[in-house]
Amino acid sequence: MKARSHAYSNGEPMSTALIESVLSRTKRFLFKIDHKRSKHMRAMRKILREKLAKKDEVKRLASLKQDNLIPSTVPIPERTANDEEMQVGGSGTSEFNSRTLKNKDGQYPSWLSGRQRKHLQAKQAVQKRNEKQKKMKKNAGKVTKRKKTQTKNKAEAIYLSSTIFRQIFRRLTSAGGSGDTGIADKVQQLITGHKVIVFSKTTCPYCIKAKQILSKYKLKDYKVIELDEIDHGNEYQNVLGKLTNARSVPRVFIAGECIGGGDDTERLDQNGDLEKRLKKVNAIEK
């Protein structure tokens, strides 16, 4: 059996351009047929929707009036002989929920179409999901706020307990000696026992400034007492406050005399009085 070939009736072969032209015309012809059929189907569906809409409106109004959802004075269009009979209860009271449109058995009214039921169910599902998300966010916010409050209360309790413990410990340890009198004697011994002494704290910027100024000179018999690193540092600071009428740090003493704090030391250094005082008490190495 021989294979068929595109050819004219006289046996001459068909050109490629001619084949493409035939195919293009065939496609356009089929498209027109499909378009006419679609247009006809759309017209028929429109007519059917209009016909069903009238019947659904009659059923809906009759059911609403039966369920007492609308006044009885609203006129209802007369139903045609082809309309189906409505199945409504004769109780005279509304048995459908105004929000969900369901009765106690979970059934929708007979006038509600299938498409309307699906739309209502989808809308209710979205509302339910949104309410659930809002509730979850609200609960999450409450939990976060509760956790923050608990953490804050716990930190405050720890800080308060540690402060109280330190105060009790200092009182107990100071009770074993001679109290403030013993600490005052120690402070006085330190002041008189050194030519230059600084009562300081490691985290105080003014203390750091005063110590840096004094470090420029080659001092002998020079001592620094860090009050935040020794026992009873708070009591030492109270005694210094009584001696110098200032409880702040640093307290710089030269030959038993308080020259002030960090700013005072800087001022004396700038006008040259600090060096004169140090040389006067022979506190600078030669």
TrEMBL record:
Keywords: Disulfide bond, Electron transport, Glutathionylation, Redox-active center, Transport. Residues 131-150 have a biased composition (Basic residues). GO terms for biological process: cellular response to oxidative stress. Residues 84-150 are annotated as: Disordered. It holds the Pfam family Glutaredoxin. Residues 196-259 form the Glutaredoxin domain. Monomer; active form. Homodimer; inactive form. The homodimer is probably linked by 1 2Fe-2S cluster. This is Glutaredoxin-2, mitochondrial. It comes from Adineta ricciae.
